[in-house]
Amino acid sequence: MEPITVGLISLGLLLVLIIFGFHIAVSLMIMSIVGIFLTTGKFDIAINILGTTAYSSIREYVFGVIPLFVLMGLLANLSGASAELYDAANALLRRIKGGLGVATVIANAIFAAITGVSIASAAVFTKIAVPEMTRLGYNKRFAVGTVAGSSVLGMLIPPSILMIVYGMLAEVSIGKLFVAGVIPGILLSVLFIVCIITLVRVKPGIIQGKGQEEFNDSVFKKVFKTWSILALVVITLGGIWAGFFTPTEAGGVGAFGAFLLVIIKGKFKLKLLWDTFLEAGITTGSILFLLISAQMYSRMLAISGVVGIMGDYVTSLQVAPMMIIAVFMLIMIILGCILDSTSILLLTMPLMCPIVSAFGMDLIWFGIVSIVAIETVLLTPPFGLSVYTIKSALSDVGDSGMGVEEIFRGSFPFLIMMFIALIILMAFPALSTCLVNLM
Fold it and tell me: Domain of 362?
C-alpha cells in the first residue's frame, strides 16, 4: 500500500475512533502504530518508533514548564487568591451598574495569569461569584453565563497549558507565546466587560435587586490583600518578557512563590498539600501522554508523506493565504462541537503548522488565533466543557436547579464576543506580535 494512501486512511479511521468514544491519545497511538506498520511492513519498526518517541519527545528541559505552572495555579488557588481577587474587584466596581459581572471578568483575567486552565477558573468562580450575584438580585442565567464566558480567559492569558502544547507541536518559543497572549487576553476581557455593561443597560431586568452591597472594610484594604498575587504574576510573566527567566524557570519561581503564599495565608495543611500535588501529577501525566501520542502521530504522517502533499496542494491554490487561515479556523470551531480543546490542537497542528509556515506567516500569531478559535469549544454545545463544569460545580454547592441548556444560553453573548475577538486578531496580527518584537 502506498504511504500516502496509508496516511489518508489513518486520518479517516482516527476520526472514526474518536467518534466511537476512544480517548484521543489512545486513538492517536493506535493509528500511528497501524500506519507505520502498513507503510513499512514491519511491526517491530512501529514498536521501536513508539519507544523512542516516548523517551525522546518529553525528555527535554522545556517540558518541566508543564508541571510547574500547573502546580503554581493549584497552590495559588489553595491560598485563597481567587476569593481575594474577586472581593477586591467587586469593591472597586461597586458603584457601576453590572459591576459584579465586570468584577467576575477582571478577577478571572488575573486568576488566569496564575492557573492557565479554563476549567479550573469555571469551577472556582462558579462557587464564588454565582451565589454572590444571585443573592444581590442578578438573573441567574446571566450570572452563570458571565462565569462561563470569562473562564475562557484561562487558556488565552499566559501562562496557558494550550500555549505550552501548541509550542511543543509547532516548535516555537513558549516564552514568546506567553508574551504574545497578553494583548489578545486584555482585548477579550475588554470585549466581555463591554458585553456585560451593554446587557445590563439594554435589559434592566437582569438585575432585580440592588446589585451591590456596602463593604465594612475599606476598598483599599481589600485591594491591598491582592498584592502578593499580583506580585507573583508580575515576577513570572515579567521575568519571561525581560529575559530574566526561561518559561521553565519562571514556572519554578511561580510554584515556589505560590507555596509561600499558602504558608503565609495560613492554608498549609499536609492533607490539602498532598491532594494538590496529586492533582498536579494527574494533570501533568495526562498532558504528557497526549504529547507523546501526538509526536508519534506526527512521525507517522511525516513517513507517509501526507503533510508534504497537503502542504503542496494548499499552497498551490489560487486563493489568498488569509482565506486558508479562515478555513482552518472554521475547521477548528466545527471540531469544537465534538472534541475538547487539547485534542483539537493535537489533531490539527501537525497538518496545519507546516502549511502556515510555507505561506511565510508567523506561527506565534497563528497559535494565538488558533487558541481563541479552539476555546469556543468551552461554550459551544454539545461538548461545552466549561458549561458542564459549571453545572457540576453548582451541584457541589447544593444548587442543581439550572439546566445545561440555560447555561449555554447565558454564555451565548460571550461566545459572540469571542468571534469578534477572533476576527480582530486575524485582521490585525500586530496585536499578537508587537510585545514579542520588543523582547
Answer: 3-438
pLDDT tens digits along 241-258:
777 888 788 888 888 988
Report how far residue 387's alpha carbon sits from residue 381's, in angstroms, rounded to the nearest whole number.
9
Per the structure, how many domains does the chain have? 1
- CA distances (Å), 260 to each of 79, 85, 233, in order? 9, 18, 14
Give the count of alpha carbons within 13 A of 269, CB side only.
6
Place of cell 516564552: 175
pLDDT band at 158 (very low <50, low <70, confident <90, very high): confident
Phi, psi (deg, nearest 5) at residue 427: -75, -30
d(CA 375, CA 350): 19
Are 133 and 86 in contact by the 8 Å Cβ rule? The answer is no
Furthest C-alpha separation in the chain:
75
Distance of alpha carbon 294 from alpha carbon 332, whole angstroms: 17
* Residue 19: all three cell numbers together: 467518534
The Cα 277–Cα 80 span in angstroms is: 17
- CA 419, CA 431: separation in Å to the nearest integer? 16
